[in-house]
Specification:
Blueprint lengths: L9 E4 L4 E5 L2 E6 L3 E6 L2 E7 L6 E11 L3 E10 L2 E9 L11 E4 L5 E4 L2 E3 L10 E5 L4 E5 L2 E6 L3 E5 L5 E4 L9 E10 L3 E10 L2 E9 L14 E3 L5 E4 L2 E2 L9
């Protein structure tokens, strides 16, 4: 087993220029980022210590990871602006590539790959999205009531997830939808707004979403509604589909 296989944590050299800002101040600028899969679903960036432009002030917080070793926590400070607890190092990590690298908290900063902003977390180079127009009929039932019926879906195929059926709003029973305060973000698609579905006295929370202004690579689903396959009955060309088992179920 190599260093980068220890504890099933994958480490890979990235090829993109990565810059990180805090309130408009340059915190890091590197062409040598590391992609580290600390969780199996997506990577995070570790950046070379020598490419950090801000001060890292130890904050006394330490944690132990079976795969990465003992960590040291830092506050990030630049030009009097501070991000508390926003950096971590593993200086004695059994994963040698991490010893001289810093993980910056993604949510605490503004991130750019080359000259384009990225959101939520780095995109997995082994995952992709295909969005295809289709004439297949998609019918959605909730508690036996048809809430959508469309023969012009856009089908989104995303690595590792079930196909998602995005439907024109005129093909959706909007009278059964109740606006929700829930919003989620995706590094590939952007920010989604949610609806719940009310059938009789039953309210099914947050089972429909829409990307009103998706990121450029996902423009084909702009303004279309999508139902969680895991939580509704979907008929594809008249055939009831199995409900997939995913973390979203």
């Amino acid at each position: 087993m190599t260093d980068d296989q220890r504890g099933r944590v994958k480490v890979e050299a990235g090829q993109k220029r990565v810059r990180v800002y805090l309130s408009g101040r340059l915190v890091a600028d590197t062409v040598r980022p590391l992609l580290v899969w600390e969780v199996p679903y997506y990577p995070t960036y570790y950046l070379p210590l020598t490419d950090i432009k801000a001060d890292l002030e130890p904050n006394g917080i330490t944690e132990h990871s079976p795969s990465r070793g003992d960590s040291t926590g830092y506050d990030v400070v630049i030009d009097g602006v501070r991000a508390d607890g926003a950096a971590v190092r593993y200086p004695d990590s059994p994963l040698t590539a991490l010893k001289d690298a810093v993980r910056l908290d993604f949510a605490a900063f503004d991130w750019f790959e080359e000259d384009e902003p990225i959101f939520v977390h780095p995109r997995d180079p082994y995952a992709r999205i295909d969005i295809l127009g289709s004439s297949r009929n998609v019918r959605v039932e909730v508690d036996g009531v048809t809430v959508a019926d469309s023969s012009s879906p856009r089908i989104l195929f995303e690595t590792g997830l079930p196909a998602r059926y995005y439907l024109p709003l005129p093909d959706v029973r909007m009278d059964l939808l109740v606006a929700s305060d829930t919003h989620t973000s995706c590094p590939y698609k952007g920010t989604a707004d949610y609806w719940s579905v009310q059938v009789g006295d039953a309210v099914h929370e947050d089972i429909v979403w829409i990307y009103r202004t998706p990121l450029p690579e996902s423009q084909k689903v702009a303004g279309l509604a999508c139902f969680y396959n895991e939580k509704v009955d979907i008929y594809l060309d008249g055939v009831l589909q199995d409900r997939p088992h995913t973390p979203f179920g």
